[in-house]
Design goal:
heterotrimer, B: Aldehyde Oxidoreductase, domain 4, 20 helices, 28 strands, globular, C: alpha+beta, Uridine Diphospho-n-acetylenolpyruvylglucosamine Reductase, domain 2, Uridine Diphospho-n-acetylenolpyruvylglucosamine Reductase, domain 3, Enolase-like, domain 1, 3 domains
Chain lengths: ~160, ~775, ~290
């Protein structure tokens, strides 16, 4: 995790979960640290720091990215949505309810990243079939569920049985 | 008057109570918590593998601004961690493994703490290393733990009958050596702890990821030389357990000593790389198995000899031979069995406890031998297993009493649903055709404890239950929620007794100052033991409530029931009064009574004797998995297409949670069989990331067909058995059998990664051997 | 960690080239490789960190008549979803589909994948097969100068290219292949995503009467750079692709590579997989 207090900082402005934010960040710090430690949004999780697990997935201008690989300064001028932001928007209640009702959550540590990956997928392919859902979740690792119920949850929203 | 029908939540698809806040990202794991004035702790690990520490100089680290404490072995109490008391939290004299902790720093930021670690100077003298457990055993091998007589850290021998004699009566004796690899839990939430030590009161509060809070508290008091009543363990929700949190690890006492020395709360959280390198692994194993079988398909004898790589320190996990032994002695009807396991010290990563607890390794060998024996006697593998399978009522040579046993139903259900025998024969016949992609089908079964396991002096769990003025129920239980869904199942069981809706129940299960004792989350015991404890407390509460209702209504208590948050007449469900109203009446009348009850459930299992005989669990779980694979003979890639699984679960309590546990276990077992391989080279983990340590991803999962066999165990809560570990156990063996069915090549070494399979198909893999090269 | 003194966010190629001309610059595009490499200690920041994400005109795929122009900031997702790429460079679409994960495809750029110069980089083999060129811009004397280098000659070793420190990779030029051109990419692996190539094979050529002409073959992860396999190309050129010929070509491919052992595979297995993968792509295009 690269952050250095002595490091050069930059003030950036962006939209976070629908509200404008102004924050000063070290230029080499990643967006995950900024979100978790500076902005206290701990829903986005650290799982590996290398973009291999998806626990830190966020939406950047509507597309899913790994916050751990994103330079915080690169958030400047963008629209960022975290799992907390999904929770603020009633449109996403259906997805969250599906995660609950279909048993997609066990330890819950991957759930925020899965929610973001699912949201990004459904925005692009509202009627995604099961194979498309699996590919849409390929960047998110879950150790508990074996994915079946997570796929069920997304499929419940996309309305597919295939 | 309105009436209420009895409604039951048992067997329903009840969503997990904690799921909404987890899916919303609101749950606070230890990683997400920060205490006022908290420092960040970082651990310095050795850059050697086996070496004497000649000197350490921490002065530059201490002088760095922002550093609040630097500790080395001399700051720690002299007590050791681990089952064999062989693991000092900080190593002072010598290091024995890559992960070894030699110093630690608490600083105001992570960067400063990391900077300080770089300033610590250490001088070493290297010692000869041991990376092969077969070498560790040898006379004259260097001692890894110098205070021990040899490198053998744990040794188990067991027998029933006379295996040597029985072997002479066999028509076929088959002998092979199997080799199992390193895997690790790779929980999505990395290890972490916050130690909050109050220098004025001497109180220590640990925000810990442990699965065993009460054993933890006891061991902490010993290791830290503290009064146990000054230690409080709070368990925030954890990002996965799977057995990884059964032991105390060095980072935890290190955090406490840093907190004591700095007089500030200290948080230590691992990086993913640290998690791969410094958290426990499953035991790598060599297993030599000799099986005798008669022409008619009767198994005569089983001789099981195994060698486990323990690493340099001993965790609870070193007791996995107990479980391996059960599979050797009691899984099938084996009249004569001889069993031995040694765990030896090496300079490799330290092995620990991991879901399945030795049973994946034992089952890998035994279930592949079942197929080899079936082939030797010319029987279909399913038919051969049915002939030798245990049945209800049997007491095994080791003393296990199978009061319920759905083994044969598991076999026949999975066999029929997958059309096993037909496909098995068809694939056999198709082996020689020109298609480079071969289809295979394989089966494997398992036996595991399903009603706790009496290893510790008590295998029990306590529950305190209280009802408030409005009919709301709070369950205070010692049983921890680790994501498996225990909160929800315990609530369902209590709702069943008290006739209240799930929304009227709260579970408190995360604070040793509040909850009653429990031995911990392990051995698939929480639903069974915690469930029985909760039912016990609820029954007491119900009796109190109905007694009071009887006085108010003048209806005998045994003619009353609790349903829908009301007191009703049992025979027709007519509502007598609201539960809340009755409770308020009990509370505010002259002899005011708050309804609180407590119950401690101890299962009717026994400690095994010196010969390891005895009925160690109150119930036993059974399962059969049939897997269908495709083997690409041009690449060695094995694709898992379908898993048909049948599990004896006693009774389904929560169908969705149960499916979730089984599916998750199957996929974890798929990883063990096919993709996960923690490579260790000269003591160093060379795959400490998700790129190279390949966990199964969503597109790789097979189609899964689950069946639950309900044997209604008389001891189980509402008839249920524990199943948390069962699904991961028999996957690797089943895949091994399926690869053989597809290709005619048996591979004795897991995991079945593409290169290994490809080499084996080319005849370029040597069979493993118990003897060192 | 060395210290970053300046953070720059140029808006144009010209501004970026000015900053590069001053020297000692780390270029940040998608960040997906840079963040990991710095954290792992494999890369140190130079005194200036230049974020080129705001540079205009560097993202997008355009049809320029006889070639496609792919801006350096074009993401892997852009490649995957582009009809132009699907039409003129199927092999690149296939490689984009096998690239890391959704999240990384959304952030990672083609310029970044090229600049990272990993022999296992997923877009590199297809670009070699497509005879792509990279366009580099610099400002040696106050005005923009560009040059192009064929991608097959661009890489000089793992992480090393012919790009000068003063140059910015601005685009990839992909000549439109002739009519009848077919191409395919095979990345060895057991899962669709999140895999680093153990080996990869790219094949392209004009298919007529069961034979390929203008054959192009490239291999990934078997040499210090993405390998243009000239011997294999020669063995394939103009031959009728029956099973015996396919086997012979695959044997040539196996002989042409000289890979290394690493944590993902042994050299022996990589050679075997080049052979197997070569057969697979030949069968695929000849169908």
């Amino acid at each position: 995790m690269s952050a250095n207090k002595k490091m050069l900082t930059r003030e950036i402005n962006f939209t976070l979960n629908g509200s404008p934010v102004q924050v000063s960040v070290p230029v080499a710090e990643n967006a995950l640290i900024m979100l978790r430690e500076e902005l206290n949004l701990t829903g986005t999780k650290y799982g590996c720091g290398e973009g291999e697990c998806g626990a830190c997935s966020i939406l950047m201008d509507g597309e899913s990215v790994n916050a751990c690989l994103m330079f915080a300064v690169d958030c400047d001028g963008r629209e960022i949505v975290t799992v907390e932001g999904l929770a603020q928007d009633e449109v996403n209640d259906q997805l969250r309810d599906a995660f609950v009702e279909k048993g997609a959550v066990q330890c819950g540590f991957c759930s925020p990243g899965m929610m973001i990956a699912a949201k990004a997928l459904l925005d692009k392919k509202p009627n995604a079939n099961r194979d498309e859902i699996k590919r849409g979740l390929e960047g998110n690792i879950c150790r508990c569920t074996g994915y079946v119920k997570i796929i069920d949850a997304v499929a419940a929203v996309s309305g597919t049985n295939q | 008057m309105p009436t209420i029908e009895k409604e039951s939540l048992i067997g329903k698809r009840v969503p997990k109570m904690d799921a909404p806040e987890k899916a919303a990202g609101r749950t606070r794991y230890v990683h997400d918590m920060n205490l006022p004035g908290q420092l960040i702790g970082k651990i310095l690990r050795t850059d050697r593998i086996h070496a004497k520490i000649l000197s350490m100089d921490t002065s530059a680290a201490e002088a760095l601004p922002g550093v609040k404490a630097v500790i080395t072995a001399k700051d720690m109490p002299a007590k050791m961690l681990g089952l064999n008391n062989d693991n000092p939290p900080l190593k002072g004299d010598k290091v024995r493994a890559e992960r070894d902790e030699i110093a630690a720093v608490a600083a105001i930021t992570e960067e400063i703490a990391l900077e300080a670690l770089k300033l610590i100077k250490v001088e070493y003298e290297d010692l000869p290393t041991l990376f092969d457990p077969r070498e560790s055993e040898k006379e004259g091998a260097p001692h890894i733990q110098e205070s021990k007589d040899s490198n053998v850290c744990m040794e188990f021998e067991y027998e029933h009958g006379d295996a040597a004699k029985a072997e002479t009566e066999a028509d076929f004796v088959i002998e092979d050596t199997f080799k199992l690899h390193y895997v690790t839990h790779a929980c999505m939430g990395v290890s972490g702890v916050i130690a909050d030590f109050d220098n004025i009161t001497g109180n220590l509060t640990l925000h810990s990821n442990t699965q065993v809070p009460f054993l933890h508290k006891r061991e902490f008091s010993e290791v830290l030389e503290m009064d146990p009543s000054r230690i409080r363990i709070i368990q925030p929700p954890i990002g996965g357990g799977f057995g990884s949190k059964l032991d105390i690890y060095p980072f935890e006492p290190i955090a406490v000593i840093l907190a004591k020395k700095s007089r500030c709360p200290v948080k230590i959280v691992f990086t993913r790389e640290e998690e791969f390198m410094a958290s426990p692994t499953r035991q790598p194993a060599y297993i030599n198995l000799r099986s005798g079988v008669k022409k008619d398909g009767t198994i005569t004898s089983r001789v099981f000899d195994s060698l486990l790589d323990n690493g340099a320190y001993t965790s609870w996990g070193a007791t996995i031979p107990f479980v391996m032994m059960q599979t050797a002695s009691s899984f099938y009807r084996v009249t004569d069995c001889q069993y031995a396991t040694k765990a030896v010290y090496t300079n490799n990563p330290t092995a620990g406890s991991f879901r399945g607890y030795g049973n994946l390794q034992a089952t890998f060998a035994i279930e592949q031998h079942m197929d080899k024996m079936a082939e030797a006697v010319g029987m279909d593998p399913l038919e051969f297993r049915l002939k030798n399978a245990q049945e209800a009522g049997e007491v095994t040579g080791q003393g296990m009493h199978f009061k319920t046993c759905g083994f044969k139903e598991c076999l026949s259900t999975a066999g029929e649903k997958s059309d096993f025998s037909r496909k098995f024969a068809e694939n056999n016949a198709n082996r020689g055709n020109g298609n480079p992609v071969k289809k295979g089908i394989g089966m494997a079964s398992m036996l595991h404890v399903g009603g706790g396991a009496k290893i510790y002096p008590s295998d029990g769990c306590g529950t305190i239950l209280k009802m408030d003025d409005f009919g709301h129920v709070t369950i205070l239980t010692g049983a921890s929620e680790i994501g498996q869904g225990s909160e929800t199942v315990l609530s369902q069981l209590v709702c069943e007794e008290l006739g209240v809706p799930l929304s009227a129940v709260t579970v408190v299960n995360n604070d040793t100052d509040i909850t009653p004792w429990d031995v911990g989350v392990h051995a698939s015991r929480t639903t069974f033991i915690g469930g029985n404890a909760a039912i016990g407390a609820a029954k007491l509460a119900k009796a109190k409530v109905l007694e009071s209702a009887s006085q108010v209504s003048n209806i005998p208590a045994d003619q009353l029931d609790m349903r829908g948050g009301c007191i009703v007449r049992a025979d027709d469900g007519e509502v007598i009064m609201q539960l809340g109203k009755l409770l308020r009446g009990m509370h505010f009348k002259d002899k005011a009574e708050l309804v609180t009850t407590s119950f401690y459930y101890e299962p009717p299992s026994v400690h095994q004797d010196k010969g390891f005989k005895g009925d160690v669990s109150a119930a036993y779980a059974w399962a059969t998995h049939v897997v269908e694979v495709e083997v690409d003979t041009e690449t060695g890639i094995v694709t898992l297409d379908k898993v048909t699984a049948a599990h004896d679960v006693g009774r389904v309590l929560n169908e969705m949670s149960l499916e979730g546990q089984i599916e998750g276990g199957i996929i974890m077992g798929q990883g063990y069989a096919l993709t996960e391989d923690l490579l260790v080279k000269e003591g160093r983990v060379i795959t400490p990331n998700f790129r190279d340590y390949k966990m199964v991803t969503a597109p790789e999962i097979p189609e899964i067909d689950l069946s639950f066999i309900e044997t209604q165990d008389g001891e189980g809560p509402q008839g249920a058995k524990g199943v948390g570990e069962a699904p991961s156990i028999c996957m690797a063996a089943a895949v091994g059998n399926a690869i053989y069915n597809a290709t005619g090549v048996r591979i004795y070494e897991a995991p079945y990664t593409p290169e290994k399979v490809y080499r084996a198909l080319k005849g370029a893999v040597e069979a493993p051997s118990m003897a060192a090269e | 960690m060395s210290e970053i003194q300046n953070y720059e966010t140029p808006n144009s190629v010209s501004e970026a080239a000015d900053i590069l001309a001053k020297g000692d610059v780390t270029i940040l595009a998608g960040g997906t490789d840079l963040m990991v490499q710095v954290d792992a200690g494999r890369v140190e920041y130079k005194s200036t960190l230049m974020n080129i994400r705001r540079v205009e005109g560097l993202r997008g795929i355009s049809d320029e008549g006889d070639h496609l122009r792919v801006g350096a900031l074009t993401t892997i997702t852009d490649l995957l979803e582009s009809d132009l790429i699907a039409e003129h460079g199927t092999i690149l679409t296939e490689a984009a589909d096998a690239f890391a994960s959704v999240q990384i495809r959304n952030a990672g750029t083609i310029g970044g994948n090229i600049s990272n110069a990993s022999p296992a980089g997923d877009t590199l083999v297809p670009l070699v097969v497509l005879n792509a060129e990279v366009e580099l811009a610099s400002k040696p004397n106050g005005s923009i100068v560009t040059r192009t280098i064929p991608i097959k000659d661009y890489f000089t070793g793992p992480g090393k290219t012919k790009k000068e420190d003063s140059e910015l990779l601005v685009a990839v030029i992909i000549p439109k292949p002739a009519a009848g051109f077919v191409s395919t990419f095979d990345k060895f692996g057991s899962r669709p995503a999140l895999d680093i190539s153990t080996v990869s094979v790219g094949l392209g050529g004009v298919l007529k009467d069961g034979a390929l002409t203008d054959v192009r073959v490239a291999f990934g992860a078997v040499a210090p750079v993405p390998l243009k396999a000239t011997a294999t190309e020669a063995a394939t050129e103009g031959k009728k692709l029956d099973e015996a010929t396919i086997d012979a070509i695959a044997a040539t491919a196996k002989d042409e590579v000289n890979p290394i052992d690493d944590v993902r595979a042994t050299a022996w297995y990589r050679k075997e997989m080049i052979e197997s993968s070569m057969k697979k792509v030949l069968r695929h295009v000849s169908k």
